[in-house]
Amino acid sequence: MSEVTPQTETGQTVKEREESLAPRKPLSPLAKRLLGIGLGVLTFFVVSGIVNFRLDAVRSATFGQGVDALAQAIVDPVLVSDRNKLGQIVQRSASASGYETITIYGREGQVLASTNRLADQAAAIKLESAPEKARVTKENSRLVARRAIFLAEGNRIGAIKVTALPR
């Protein structure tokens, strides 16, 4: 005849239950130190990721505001397709702002001025697709903003595309 071992409500034997409730050996000082360092490093990376995410959002917003201001400032030369004046504005703006490329398109989508010498062969932009406020996207690790240039609300006379390397 076999002996019946008493069991608790969870299905453990009384002996197993007593062993699970017995005090455990405390962590060694080295293990505690390593655990603290690991938690500190993990916390650092989490906080760094959050800060970098927020900085990227602020950079994108600031970049978009700069493109909006530039688009508003060049309405007159775009209206008369003054390529010389637009060329000067594009060169000065790119060097002052640290933009990689600036391309200004006319009413028909043709390139009026650009810091990119190959932009004349680039595909023309469709004015209907250019947003009213700068839309910033990331393409090939670069920030790219596109925006329509308006004479008055709804009257698109051109567009602008600006590319910047993230800092």
Keywords:
single chain, alpha+beta, 167 residues, elongated, Beta-Lactamase
Folded structure, characterized:
By secondary structure, the chain is α+β, with helices and mostly antiparallel strands. It has a single domain (31-164), classed as 2-Layer Sandwich (Beta-Lactamase). 44% of the residues lie in helices and 21% in strands. The protein is built from four helices and five strands. The chain has helices at 14-21, 29-73, 75-79, 83-97, and strands at residues 101-105, 111-114, 135-139, 142-152, 155-164. Strand 4 and strand 5 (155-164) form a beta hairpin. It is elongated, with a radius of gyration of 31 Å. The termini are far apart.
Series of secondary-structure elements, N-terminal to C-terminal: HHHHEEEEE
**How many structural units, i.e. domains?**
1
Query: Gyration radius, to the nearest Å?
Result: 31 Å
Shape: elongated
Q: How far apart, in Å, are the first and last alpha carbons?
A: 80 Å
Q: Tell me the fraction of residues in β-strands, as a range.
A: 15-25%
Low-confidence sequence ranges? none
CATH topology: Beta-Lactamase
The overall average pLDDT, rounded, is 83
CATH architectural grouping: 2-Layer Sandwich
Q: Helix content range of the residues, please?
A: 40-55%
